[in-house]
From TrEMBL:
One of its GO terms (cellular component) is outer membrane-bounded periplasmic space. It comes from the Bacteria. Keywords: Hydrolase, Nucleotide-binding, Signal. This is 5'-nucleotidase. It is an enzyme of class 3 (hydrolase). Residues 1-31 form the signal peptide. It comes from Streptomyces clavuligerus. Pfam families: 5_nucleotid_C, Metallophos. Gene3D superfamilies: 3.60.21.10, 5'-Nucleotidase, C-terminal domain (3.90.780.10). GO terms for molecular function: 5'-nucleotidase activity; nucleotide binding; UDP-sugar diphosphatase activity. Residues 403-569 form the 5'-Nucleotidase C-terminal domain. SUPFAM superfamilies: 5'-nucleotidase (syn. UDP-sugar hydrolase), C-terminal domain, Metallo-dependent phosphatases.
Amino acid sequence: MSARSRRTSTTRTRRMLAAAAGLTTIGALVAAIPAPAGAQESRDRGHGHSDGRGHGRTVDVQLLSFNDFHGHLQPPTGSGGRVTRTNPDGTTTTVDAGGAEYLATHLREARKGNRYSVTAAAGDLVGATPMLSGLFHDEPSVEALNQLGLDVSSVGNHEFDEGVKELARIQNGGCHPTEGCYQEGRTFKGAKFPYLTANVTQEKTGRPLLDPYFIWQKNGVRIGFIGVTLEGTPDIVNSEGIKGLKFHDEVESINKYAKVLERKGVKAIVALLHEGGSPASSSYNYNCDSPGPGDGISGPIVEIAKNVSPQVDAMVTGHTHQAYACSIPDPSGKPRTVTSAASAGRLYTDTTLTYDRRTRDVVRTAVKSANHVVTRDVPKAPDITRLIDGWNALAGPIANRPVGHISGDIENPLSEVERPLGNLIADAQLEALAPADKGGAQLALMNPGGIRAPLTHQASGAEGDGVVTYGEAFTVQPFTNMMNVVDLTGAQLITTLQQQVSGPNQGSPKILQVSRGFTYTLDMTKTGADRIVTGSVRLNGEPIDPAKTYRVAINEFLTGGGDGFPVLREHKNKIVGASDLDVLLAYLGANSTPTAPLAPPALGRITVVR
């Protein structure tokens, strides 16, 4: 959930990969921030949509949508590759889901028989991606999204992972500025769909970074799309990557451009918003409108939806990686569809917008929406398979290299305070940076959003069960953040823990994963900073002394105060170490063998009172 700088060694790895695959570097691209045209209108690119003409006063427009794809070209593994369904008898079933080959097939099948169909997304399509995409700066993902027929998307915070210039290249195309093109004579063409940034402006000009809205049209039917990311994006991305930009209030930005669209005669409007909520159930088919509209969902999206202009007819959301299709009342009290399709291409949402040709607006009472599973029991889309196979051939020499062994799944359950994989990563960071010549770290803290996937025991390829490959480790920590060791006082450490559950993190706590020997109690019966039982905070059994200085290993994202931890910017005596990925690789190599695999770490470092 945050931007990351790319490590020099990673660039060398990519160059090694290029050499192994017989590639060449072609020049360097200096990507400029594009001046927005103010809006785009659709060119009928087809995408397999019907060309038939609707008759009568109203026509049904199919809106297919998804969010937080995060470059999952191949099916995600472990718990991150499943969804939960509630059955009619009240029991639940988990279903394996996701994979671009299957997503393309499901979307194309869904479009059949629909004269009017548009496909939209709500950001984080790239960034925090598995190795197959991340190794190539997400060019493979953009090409896949082009092929599966995406028409428009908002940006998310992860679109800023590599900075503004790289976002411009993702949109407009061109070879990477330092690594060039990955194949001789083949230039990356960029996204065929527009990325929208209605609430992101350039400080010098006040103009939107990219187009704020997009008008889709077909046979006289016109629907406007407004795209925004969460206003808090600067708090969760690397500040270097967004210099010169301002991020504005989501509601004000959507309402502003809803008026612009209406002045242009576009009255049917959909907001694409990279911010979301949390339903009361993890089942993708949970009824979050029971007992009343929107009663079963909480989080930032609720207040946003209640304040976005009634001119907006539907909202496609994301960021929280949750699944829901709710009806949250707009400012006039009228229910409005608000959807999210989980993450990693495991679901897609099918929404019917009934368009009135006379009023040029959506008949809100006729809007219907539901999430559908991207099951893996359908044929793979052959064109996406060819695309994946081509990039896999380039990545294979690096991706398939064994780097460690595990005795069972090491999970990263997003709903839990303490996670086995979080413990492992924090332990790896402590072990690497504890030596005096490496920084003398006494403890390590890891932000949970930087852990992107579990480590699964079952083989993902031909490597064998229990073998961890370089590609799998890369997927866990794709940001390649540099590790830092810094001085923090005991008082600052306690404040750090308190900021997990207060300030910007009070509504949605961000619980740092901690290394062995660091323990404390989290009392969830209290509120805000009081949830941290200060007298319980201990290091190797000794109470933390507020006046004492401790050496703490954290990544560079946290050093900059990311994820709502401003106290960490007050650090002193920083030493820069290896990257988080290199640290994880070293730990796996040093602590596991085929005959003595690494076991999932035990829990119990954070005691939770509920």
